[in-house]
Amino acid sequence: MPENANNTANVSYGKFKSGGYFFVAPYGTPLPTDNTTALNEAFVNMGFMGDDGFVFDNSVTTNTAQDANGDTIASDSAAPTKTMTTTFREIKAASMKVVYGSGNVTDADGLLTVHDKGPNNETLSAVIEILLKDGRKDRKVIEQCSPNQLGSESIVYSSLVGKPLTWSIMKGKTTGDYITDYIDSTETEEA
């Protein structure tokens, strides 16, 4: 095959690791640096997520300057805005603490109590375990994020209950990345 030719081995649908695929930990928890090492025990499984999966939005504001005739004479990109949106399907203490803030949720004596005081602005770290075709793994690591925008919650007999949430993703202080992906390669030469 010619070098740099199209390769169907690099095309895949995104599925998720069975038994747990979205994990959240307090910011500052040691992060994985590959896609095989076990996660630090501080990472908590968030349970089932909605069938829209994870939606990442990337936007950049462009600053433009015009001269006296209204002609653009300079253009510069401002800092990017990165967000992730997903829907929590499991209504349990761990996920509700992420949605509403750890101090607003208690689970005692068989009663889960959630105080909705607006969005949670805690800074967290997140890991998403993705499975590509042919058993390839993609571990998406988000060093610094904040779950700060609650979506519209619809409760109706024909749909699962869910808590939609949009996260702000910030550039990590340790990695310098917004997101780091550790993906099994189809092209790496054997050592």
From TrEMBL:
<protein>
    <recommendedName>
        <fullName>Phage tail protein</fullName>
    </recommendedName>
</protein>
<dbReference type="Pfam" id="PF25681">
    <property type="entry name" value="Phage_TTP_17"/>
</dbReference>
<dbReference type="InterPro" id="IPR058154">
    <property type="entry name" value="Bxb1_TTP-like"/>
</dbReference>
